[in-house]
Amino acid sequence: MRRLVVVAVVATAAAIAIAMAIRPLEIRHPASGAAADLVARVERIEGHVRRSTPDLRSALTPIDLRQDDRVVSGDVLETDGRSRTALRLKDGTSLRLDGGARARMLSSTIIELTNGAVYIDSVRNDGGIEVRTPLGTARDVGTQFEVRVSHTLLRVRVRSGSVELRHRDRSASALAGTELVLADGEISRRAITPFGPEWEWTASVAPRFDIDGRPLASFIDHLCREHGWTVHYEDDELARRSWTIILHGSVRGLPPTEALEVALATSGLEHRFDGGDLSIYRSPNAR
Predict the structure, then answer these.
(1) Whose C-alpha in 120, 142, 233, 248 is 20 to 30 A from the C-alpha of 55?
(2) Which backbone phi and psi does 237 adopt, to 5 degrees?
(3) Quick check: 52 and 75 in contact, CB under 8 A?
(4) Hey, what domains does the chain have and what are their CATH numbers?
């Protein structure tokens, strides 16, 4: 709840000055009234997401999470099997919860995940986001990564950057393209790709990208970041020109590849995929 205090100050008999003092924004838990720190804002919701806030008796009072809601320290977010949500943390980092997840937002840099999966797309080069689970803790170093936990298994998949996984007195680091699995007290690793079906849930709940008035290159970069693709332009001149091509209209509701095809077609360009490599080239008819 926002509280605004306006104080009128009388100066002298000859003149009256009005001074306004505004207290710093203070967010309070609706049930307990105790001050709480702002952690994030809700950017997108797919399906049904619940938020529980501690009350005076430390019980949890569940309410429906809504678009643009503010999430504060101590809030517990839960998604059912068909729901997902995306939050924007205070520093601009994107945090997304998959279906069947339960996470307590301890602060803007610490998330306690007890079930399901969370995806972090960090904007900070120095990282600093920590995901705590009953089995171990994952800490990023400026990266994109997923943490998925169940009763017996913890999995960390790194899309870019690096992540450190800590379990009791042991730790393991993973670079981009690596998956760490903690099971039965042992940590194993394997190579993975940054694209593919296992990542697609993160893009399905990503904040929407409005193409109208935006450069083509900006839209391509957005798609590549969300889907783990690597873009290759036909030549340097086309790469530079893609920043001067301004898109209009909307591709909302289209699958990513169809949206890309529409945006390119209106620009006289075409594309092809080779695994996760996206090639952009001039259409033969437009040469």
Answers:
(1) 120
(2) -65, -40
(3) yes
(4) 28-198 (2.60.120.1440), 208-286 (3.55.50.30)
Higher pLDDT, 188 or 5: 188
- Quick one: which of 137, 141, 140 has its CA closest to 182? 137
- Rounded to an integer, what is the distance from CA 278 to the centroid of its chain? 23
Query: And the tokens for 267?
Result: 């620009």
pTM reported for the whole predicted model: 0.83
**Whole-angstrom distance, CA of residue 40 vs CA of residue 104:** 12
* DSSP helix/strand/coil, 15: coil
Dist. CA 249–CA 229, nearest whole Å: 24
Q: Which of 70, 119, 124, 127 is nearest to 99 (CA)?
A: 119
- Cβ atoms of residues 224 and 218 within 8 Å: no
Distance CA 183, CA 187 (A): 7
State the maximum Cα–Cα separation within the chain, in Å, rounded to a whole number: 82
CA 280 to chain centre: 27
Query: What does the alpha-carbon distance between residue 225 and residue 62 come to, in Å, rounded to a whole number?
Result: 34
- The residue assigned the tokens 């079930």 is 115
Among 156, 93, 95, which Cα is nearest to 122's?
A: 93
